[in-house]
């Protein structure tokens, strides 16, 4: 047992990753002290979390919800508001780890705020690296802030890379293929929100579930891996492994492969990102190879899943393009979830927004935030036509 208590802030505590992170805390109560929580709409759940974990402060992403929550807790707790509040929460004193489990590029500024305090960042929020990866990694290096990936594939690669970084040929980033892996183009034209939300292997929040269904998730993860592990795009190979048993693999120059395997349970990578380099028992099931049967592999089909190629193209271009691609995708995914557009329109809107963007190749943070806002507006405008 590691005797030091890990003082923890969780941004996005009411979401799928945030709730599972608190389950990890429940499993090892002596190891963690929850210092801060942030959420947006789920006030009742946040209130329960506050009662249970007694954090020093909370932040509400939304002004209206902030006022409601302040009324709920009175003066018993420091309540912060908006993006500024989340940055303040991420910069609290006496914190060891900030788990960024927000969904979307809204995570950029709070992540940078935590990095500037040299905190360890347990990073689930892939959109932050997609949109601002160069700046975030540069800041992490400058402020000596460790970034430990939570995303299952990147946790797998992080673990496989610990010994042999110099000998890496490439990484094999596995993908389930999502709920529509075997759908024809005609079937893809007819899919509903409910069908797209029901991932075959993982239970996740709505935005990432839709990203998995379009395979945009894998494109975002390619960019995430490029930044986290300093790999060229040619060194990152997507591989469909439909059972999500192999969470990713590293290929070494001598022809050896290192793979990370386990059940599809995010509590394993979340816990590791919070306790690294230590390991603890987890309530997650263990794989039983005698029951597993086959593990299947296939190439990804970029024709039926054009979002994958769009994301990789944006990553290869760099500059503000990944932020634009990501922002357009966020808008399109939320429009699909609100039943305003069809599933097939998601990559079309992303592509049209990318085509209309004048890339800035070496952007400052302000350029990225401006490009993100522009892309959201442009994509909304396309939907009104
Ligand atoms: N779920 C999973 O298994 C995996 C997720 N990821 C990544 O982790 C991140 C989180 O995913 P997931 O947990 O599924 O998402 P959810 O939608 O389930 O949760 C998002 C969380 O962020 C909060 N939030 C969203 N916007 C704001 C805001 N503006 N201000 C404050 N809080 C906000 C939500 O609050 P509220 O609920 O109160 O509105 C919620 O707590 C994503 O980047 C995803 O890609 C990566 C791998 C696996
Ligand atoms: C659990 C996790 O890390 C998700 O990103 C998951 O990988 C999504 O599955 P897909 O492989 O279908 O995108
Ligand atoms: Mn993943």
From TrEMBL:
SUPFAM superfamilies: 1-deoxy-D-xylulose-5-phosphate reductoisomerase, C-terminal domain, Glyceraldehyde-3-phosphate dehydrogenase-like, C-terminal domain, NAD(P)-binding Rossmann-fold domains
Cofactor(s), by name: Mg(2+); Mn(2+)
Cited InterPro entries: DXP_reductoisomerase (IPR003821), DXP_reductoisomerase_C (IPR013644), DXP_reductoisomerase_N (IPR013512), DXPR_C (IPR026877), DXPR_C_sf (IPR036169), NAD(P)-bd_dom_sf (IPR036291)
Entry EC number(s): 1.1.1.267
Residues that, per the record, bind NADPH: 14-17, 125, 127, 205
Residues that hold 1-deoxy-D-xylulose 5-phosphate according to the record: 126, 152-153, 176, 199, 212, 217-218, 221
Amino-acid biosynthesis as UniProt keyword: no
Pathway: Isoprenoid biosynthesis; isopentenyl diphosphate biosynthesis via DXP pathway; isopentenyl diphosphate from 1-deoxy-D-xylulose 5-phosphate: step 1/6
DXP reductoisomerase C-terminal domain span: 261-378
Reactions catalysed according to its record: 2-C-methyl-D-erythritol 4-phosphate + NADP(+) = 1-deoxy-D-xylulose 5-phosphate + NADPH + H(+)
Top-level EC class as recorded in UniProt: oxidoreductase
Keywords: Isomerase, Isoprene biosynthesis, Magnesium, Manganese, Metal-binding, NADP, Oxidoreductase
Biological role: Catalyzes the NADPH-dependent rearrangement and reduction of 1-deoxy-D-xylulose-5-phosphate (DXP) to 2-C-methyl-D-erythritol 4-phosphate (MEP).
Family according to the record: Belongs to the DXR family.
Protein name: 1-deoxy-D-xylulose 5-phosphate reductoisomerase
The gene coding this protein: dxr
